């Protein structure tokens, strides 16, 4: 599952106070208006319930894209001489709220906005917000694809998974594109106004790598049979706990991949793990300094372990199908070592309680981080019964542990009673792990361009009379409210963005 980003929020700014354009008279005003729409929409999105955020994220993508088109056109106009800064004013300064930094760093709390000067600072934040929104959209689509109410034996034909993959790859393209731009300049000697973690070069490189790693792992998800297999057949020792995975179904599990297909899946998983390792490496200094959000650091570690363990699982599946049950068990045990733990399978009451608690905690974490289905008929509230089962989250350590434990129990029983093959030591299998294989390539991102009709409107000195602007005539003058109490308090569902979006 792609990382659950939190969308940043921003303060107000008036481009008209800093720039003028004889060629495009209304360009600064248009930038101010579209930024105001984005600002209010981000604040409104923050106040929505999880069930509403999943359906609203497409709107965030659209308005962010529209704002970026005007912002970049202003940047191009400044370079070509069609626009110029107003000499009597200071350089434009905007504020954004970091969402990937640790809770406290150098006395700066995460709830404080970070100021930055220049259009480059604004461009980096706007594009980053767009990339986060694409990732959140991918999570929403995956939630619908993996939901027990929509999953079926022919779910491989569903368009939801390819759509989610495209959104994750778009996110990776945006992060990679930002690495090619001139970075914003930090204020010399001012630690508080240094480049925020969200848009610093190491973090952007890490985000590009982790997005590509998530997309690579999703390529395996479509035809990975074993989470469904264990959901159908049940996990040993779980029936007395009334576990969700021990339900009986009327159809058979899909056949396991073998031969070349199993080796391909394994190499894809190893490639995803390598991307996670690369994402960890480029921000290692920031992690040691405690500057990165703990949730993101934990996500990197989980993705690395899960991907490598899943690669070992597919190698074990191939060995077991070809009659080498002992070697298959060895791969399973190596995968368990990569995950760093086991799920208790004994029948003691304490172990049962620990296993049930672990499952509930994972479901609670998913309920907080994952948006629900995007279907129009989905409920407006989210209950614990509608949470994605932990063993279907493709980036959950708990999920892969359950799958590996289930295979280990079944194969060990067969080997102990019928086959009696020797299980090789796990350290002897490490050298046999194949190299990763890429399935996706981050293509060059095409920057957002302003349409010719909009450019002609700007040249004539007019601007598009959107519903939002018509009700916010004071936005370009910067007279609208921007108090902290308005943004951080009163999170009731009655909040509405003027203009009829909510």
**Mean pLDDT figure:** 78
Distance between the termini: 28 Å
Q: Which structural class do you get from the secondary structure elements? A: mainly alpha
The profile of the biggest β sheet is: 2 strands, antiparallel
Number of helices: 15
- Work out the strand percent: under 5%
Rg to the nearest angstrom? 25 Å
The oligomeric state of the chains shown is: single chain
**Lateral arrangement of strands in the main beta sheet:** 1-2
Low-confidence stretches: 104-109, 235-251, 343-349, 365-391, 465-486, 488-502
Number of strands: 6
Helix content: 40-55%
Family: Belongs to the palC family.
Protein name: pH-response regulator protein palC
GO biological process, one term: cellular response to pH
Organism: Terfezia boudieri ATCC MYA-4762
């Amino acid at each position: 599952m792609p990382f659950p980003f939190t969308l940043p929020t921003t303060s107000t700014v008036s481009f008209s106070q800093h720039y003028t354009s004889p060629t495009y008279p209304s360009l600064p005003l248009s930038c101010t208006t579209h930024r105001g729409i984005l600002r209010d929409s981000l604040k409104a999105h923050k106040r929505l319930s999880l069930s509403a955020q999943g359906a609203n994220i497409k709107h965030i993508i659209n308005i962010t894209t529209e704002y970026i088109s005007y912002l970049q056109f202003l940047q191009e106009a400044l370079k070509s001489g069609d626009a110029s800064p107003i000499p009597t004013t200071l350089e434009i300064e905007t504020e954004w709220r970091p969402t990937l930094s640790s809770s406290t760093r150098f006395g700066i709390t995460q709830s404080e906005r970070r100021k930055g000067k220049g259009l480059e600072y604004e461009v980096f934040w706007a594009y980053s917000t767009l990339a986060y929104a694409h990732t959140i959209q991918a999570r929403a689509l995956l939630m619908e694809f993996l939901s027990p109410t929509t999953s079926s034996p022919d779910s491989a034909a569903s368009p939801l998974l390819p759509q989610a993959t495209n959104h994750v790859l778009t996110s990776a393209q945006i992060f990679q594109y930002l690495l090619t731009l001139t970075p914003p300049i930090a204020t010399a000697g001012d630690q508080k106004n240094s480049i925020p973690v969200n848009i610093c070069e190491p973090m952007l490189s890490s985000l590009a790598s982790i997005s590509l790693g998530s997309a690579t792992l999703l390529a395996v998800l479509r035809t990975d049979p074993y989470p469904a297999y264990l959901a159908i057949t049940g996990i040993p020792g779980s029936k007395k706990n009334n576990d969700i995975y021990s339900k009986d179904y009327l159809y058979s599990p899909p056949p396991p991949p073998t031969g070349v297909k199993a080796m391909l899946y394994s190499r894809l998983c190893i490639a995803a793990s390598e991307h996670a390792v690369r994402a960890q490496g480029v921000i290692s200094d920031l992690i040691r300094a405690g500057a990165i959000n703990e949730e993101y650091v934990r996500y990197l570690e989980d993705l690395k372990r899960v991907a490598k363990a899943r690669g070992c699982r597919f190698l074990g599946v191939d060995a077991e199908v070809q009659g080498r049950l002992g070697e298959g068990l060895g791969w399973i045990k190596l995968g368990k070592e990569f995950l760093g733990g086991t799920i208790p399978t004994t029948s003691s009451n304490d172990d049962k309680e620990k296993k049930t608690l672990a499952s509930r905690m994972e479901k609670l974490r998913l309920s907080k981080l994952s948006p629900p289905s995007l279907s129009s008929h989905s409920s407006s509230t989210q209950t614990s019964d509608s949470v994605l089962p932990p063993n279907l989250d493709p980036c959950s350590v708990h999920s892969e542990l359950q799958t590996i434990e289930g295979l280990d129990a079944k194969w060990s029983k067969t080997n102990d009673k019928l086959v009696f093959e020797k299980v090789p030591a796990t350290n002897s299998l490490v050298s046999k792990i194949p190299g990763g294989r890429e399935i996706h390539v981050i293509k060059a991102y095409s920057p957002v361009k302003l349409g010719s009709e909009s450019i002609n409107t700007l040249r004539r000195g007019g601007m598009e009379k959107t519903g939002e602007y018509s009700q916010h005539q004071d936005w370009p003058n910067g007279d609208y409210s921007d108090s902290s109490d308005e943004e951080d308090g009163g999170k009731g569902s009655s909040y509405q963005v003027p203009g009829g979006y909510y």
